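Quick one: sequence plus pyridoxal-5'-phosphate SMILES, need structure tokens.
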Amino acid sequence: MGIYDSLGVRPVINANATLTLLGGSLMPAEVLQAMSDAAGCFVSLPELQRQVGARIAELTRNEAAYVSCGAAAGLSLATAACVTGTDAALVTRFPHLDGVPNQVIVHHTQRNGYDYAVRQTGVEMVEIGSAQGTSPADLATAITDRTAAVFWFHGALTTPGDLPLPKVIEIAHAHNVPVVVDVAAQLPPASNLWHFTQLGAALAVFSGGKDLRGPQSSGLILGRKDLIEACRIHGSPNHAFGRPMKVGKEEMVGLLAAVERYVNLDHDARAQYCEATVASWCAALNELDGVTAVRSFPNEAAQPLPRCLVTLASAAVGIERDVVVSALLDGEPAVSVGTHDDAGIFLNPMTLEPGEEATVLERLLAVLAGAA
Ligand SMILES: *Cc1c(COP(=O)(O)O)cnc(C)c1O
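Reply:
Sure thing.
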């Protein structure tokens, strides 16, 4: 970690999640190698984007694929693509489009920070339903000739009263409106790379820098050929809406290597490692007075991997949860963990490098022992 030392920036052990704030994820050797290989010479970037897209589409059983500079950029490009299609004149005028469909429908309950990436194109968001629930009629009556797309935010952002996604797709299709799903963090399972588009979503947008462990500034738009072509027209190096969201040759090739690795990964062995890690953390922490540790499932993105939920009875332990979290981050080595309610700490094995699971436990035990 010489580079970080020389900058006076402390390396952090990530027992939290694939958070952009911490750098997302770590690239495996084969991804780094592919990026290094790609960096060695000049190529035609549009040609590379096409070839990489074709390979990724094949690996993920999709019609077409486009590499964006993150899932958020993918949402912006997907929005632009749904508004203009492949009409070059509209792309040039974008986002000032009188008389062109420029509304996007979204469940009221699914509004979230990432929908800024949709709104920044200038489209108007039309909300349907409420916390009490959303009906098929809510969606059907919201669709007009101004509707460019229906957006769906999957996973932890979906609530029990929402329409089922297949129903959303059925109603939207009856009106010839594409459905775009934000599935940025919906991996594993790897089959999600084709599940949503096979359900009928026109586009599915994934983060390249989360569990895929591709370049942090990469994202993946998968789905319908015509809409992927529209993303391409809006995208760099064309002087269009997506020009400031440039994707480099290294990112394109790195993401392809990451997808190739991910679809061939032994996901059972990986899940077993996570289960064993959580079980051993629980066993060690439950030895302590005032500490309760349990397996928590699924994870923060509602994906099928376990975390360890550690609950502190502050009076018995002699330290507040937030003080423990700060001590872990300020200590040596720095450890980032998640939080739950007032007294819970989440330990996540998903983002750890081999051997770090022991360090995380040691650090937490040391902080708790210091308080006792
Ligand atoms: C992480 C995330 C994004 C953004 O992904 P980036 O690749 O960091 O741009 C968008 N939507 C959701 C739901 C996410 O979890």
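Residues 20, 70-72, 114, 153, 157, 182, 184-185, 207, 209, 219 surround pyridoxal-5'-phosphate (CB under 6 Å). The chain is about 40% helix and 15% strand.
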